[in-house]
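Rotation project, supervised by the postdoc (A.L.). Task for the rotation student: set up a whole-complex structure prediction and record inputs and outputs verbatim in this book. Inputs entered:
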Amino acid sequence: QKEVEQNSGPLSVPEGAIASLNCTYSDRGSQSFFWYRQYSGKSPELIMFIYSNGDKEDGRFTAQLNKASQYVSLLIRDSQPSDSATYLCAVNSFKTSYDKVIFGPGTSLSVIP
Amino acid sequence: SAVISQKPSRDICQRGTSLTIQCQVDSQVTMMFWYRQQPGQSLTLIATANQGSEATYESGFVIDKFPISRPNLTFSTLTVSNMSPEDSSIYLCSVLGRTYEQYFGPGTRLTVT
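Outputs recorded:
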């Protein structure tokens, strides 16, 4: 089992719809969870982080965390064509002697005008 | 957030040669990370570079192939040695924020012919 898994997509949604991106992780000891957005040819940029079970909202973005199910998701409301990008889920791993972030394979999102 | 610059932004190199990538941060940071992102793939951690100590390499990466220097708290270099076409990739440096979020440099796009 891979440490962080995501649906590779591509995920296509119409403009104005809700895009739902999902991520599962294997390390039950993980404490910190991140969503990054990466436009083609650019480096990843942080969108949100979440540490506690439940929902965290920031503008059109909502991160949801369920540690019991080892599941974290990102909802994008009122999707815009500018949201078209690859979304990377990242999880802190404390298995080694230092903090390390494990990235998932990413989900490609396409918002259709 | 940290502002990170990388040099060069891109390069085309011949097989068997070496390239040194520089990473400069606008503030002092303890840990710096080097990632590789191959075409269409997610981020793979190469090594963690702490100032004043040897870099810690991930499984599959060795110091002879990817020597790293970390002479101070704002600068690091990654050398890709004895390059082959399989080393063609984007190389990214990153630093850790206070809440374990990562900030990435713009990346170095390397093509080996």
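Student's summary: The mean pLDDT of chain B is 93.
Supervisor addendum: The CA atoms of residues 13 and 112 of chain B lie 5 Å apart.
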